[in-house]
Every structure is written in structure tokens, then in C-alpha cells.
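Justification of computing resources. Each target in the renewal requires a structure prediction run like the one illustrated here; the chain below, 227 residues long, is used simply to show the kind of job we budget for.
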Amino acid sequence: MKKPLKPARENISPSDLTFALSTCKRCLWIKYWYKVIMPGAFPLVGTFASMQEEHFHNADMPTIDPSLRPGKITKWGEWVKSKPLMINGLETRWRILGKYDLVSTNDDGTIGLIDCKVSDSARDNGAFYSPQLEAYAYSLENPAAGKAQSVASIGLLVWNPVSAIGDSQDSYAFGVHQKYLPVARDEANFLATIESFIAVLESDLPDAGAECSTCSYVISRNALDDL
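Resulting C-alpha cells:
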């Protein structure tokens, strides 16, 4: 596959630092150089995510978790864009661009960043999502425009559906177990991840991921043409 003179997109999505980088580097490369993405089907994810985020609009931070600094959720669903990312002291063409879930204004002048999840996955832990959360924090602390802000805390707010509630014929609800997972700031790991990520993007077309279902389908489908 021929590499274009310029990538189709130069803004790195924070979520790609977790899912895409760990799944298939070939699909990741094609996404950024050709803007070709395998369609996904997640019927209720967006609905549940919106309900979860809206529930905490204007919430006091300690009511979400006692460990959080005094403050209030004041912003939600806003796009953030960083300055060009630096690798080994050199400016790259790449920036972070993403939309965070919840941001607090703390009483001490700092801000807190919360990423909402509705999931029962075992990978809902700080280590897995740290690069994604750090990407949002980096964009807030190194914005392409506007005033830099100091991010004091980052974390995951997870809703794990556990039961159905109600006995009416037309009104039911889902019960969830809520947990807040604080994520330790780790800028060094974020920068190392970004360096690896950009190295993949700036390389030639990588090999397909061994467990990539998209690439496995494409290879199998193309093999039928040779029958």
C-alpha cells in the first residue's frame, strides 16, 4: 500500500492510545493515513454514556468520591486540542484532539478530569486507560489556544449494570454498581506511549495484528477471490 504525501488526519484521538494501539497497528495506520475505519455497532453505549454524564452535571466532587478535592462539575462534553506534540525536543505534525466527559472546577483553582464508563469489562482499570486520560489532561495543560489549566486529578467513573428494577408493565430501570477509580498522573508513561504511537504512524504500513478480527476478515475475504 502506497503511503500518501500527507496523512488524512493529524489529530490523535485519546481513545486510540488504548484500544487502537493495543489491537492492530495496521488498522491504526490506515485510519490516520487514509481515514478508513471499520464500522462498529454499539447500539446502547452512546445512550447509556449520555445518561451517566448528564446525571453528574453540576455535581459536587466529594459526592462522587470522598477522595476528590472540593469542587463542582462545571464542564462536560467539550472538545480540547493540544499544541503540536514534541518528540525528543522536536515538534511533530501531530496533536491531541478529543472530547472529555466531565471536568470540575476545584476550590483551590485546579481542575479534575473524569472519564465515564458503562461497562462490566475487566480492563476498566487505571493502567489501561491512563494514556487516554493523560491525553485529555495534556490538552488542557498544553492547549492549542486559550489559558493552560492545572489538572489535579484524573479518574474513571464506572457504572456496572447488575440488575433490572421495577414491576410496572411500562416502567423499568437498570440498577448499576458505581465505582470511582482514581488514576495516578503518569506523564512519563503518556509521553512514551505517544512516542511509540507516532513511530507507528510515521512508519510504512505495519503488519496486521495477530488477533485483529478486521484484518482476519479482510484476509479471508480476499482469499475467496483466488478460488
